[in-house]
Design a protein that fits this description.
Blueprint (H helix, E strand, L loop, with lengths): L1 H6 L3 H32 L9 H37 L1
Helix pairs in contact: 2-3
Amino acid sequence: MFQLFFSNRSCDWWFNEAGIVLQLIGAGVLVVAGFKTRAALKDIPDSWDADLTEKLRDAFAEQAFTGLYGFLFLAAGLFAQAIAGVLQK
C-alpha cells in the first residue's frame, strides 16, 4: 500500500505538499494567537488599575510574538510552493 502511494510522487509534489502543510500550521498559529489574546484581555479587570497599560502591553506583545511564528510558517510554506513551481517546469 505504501509503495503504491510513494511510487509516483516527484520531488516537486513533496515540496508543494510541505508548503501547504506549513501554511496550515501558520494559519493555525495565527488563530491560536488571536484567541489567546482575547482570553488575556477578558481576564483584565474593568477597574482602573495602575498597571493596566502594562497588562495590555504584555497581552499584545505576546500576540505579536506568537503571530511572528505564524507568519514565518506562512512564508516558509509559500517559499516551498515557489520552489515546487520552479522544479515542476
